[in-house]
Amino acid sequence: MKGYANPKLLVTARDLAGVLEKGGTKRPLLLDLRPPEAYVAGHIPGAVHIDLWGMSLIDTDPAPLKAFMWMIAHVLAAHGVDASTPVVVYDDQSGIRAARAFWFLEYFGHPSVRLLDGGFTAWIGSGLPVTRDAAPPPKSEWTGTREAHKIATWREVKHALGRGDVVILDTRTDGEYTGAAVRARRGGAVPGAVHIEWTRNLTPEGDFKPASELKKMYEDAGVTPEREVITYCQGGYRAAHSYVALRLLGYPRVRMYVGSWKEWGDKEELPIEVPKPN
Question: Is the pTM of this model over 0.85?
Answer without folding.
Answer: yes
